Amino acid sequence: MSDEEALARRLRDRDPEAWAGVYEECFPRVYRYVAARVRDRADAEDLAERVFLKALESCSSFKWKGAPVSAWLFQIARNQIIDHRRTDKSGRSLPLDEGIASDADGPEELVERSWEVRRAIEAVGQLTPAQRDVIELRFAGELSTAEVAGILGKTEGAVKVLQHSALAKLRKRLGSRGDDGRHD
Question: Is the pLDDT of residue 183 over 70?
Answer without folding.
Answer: no
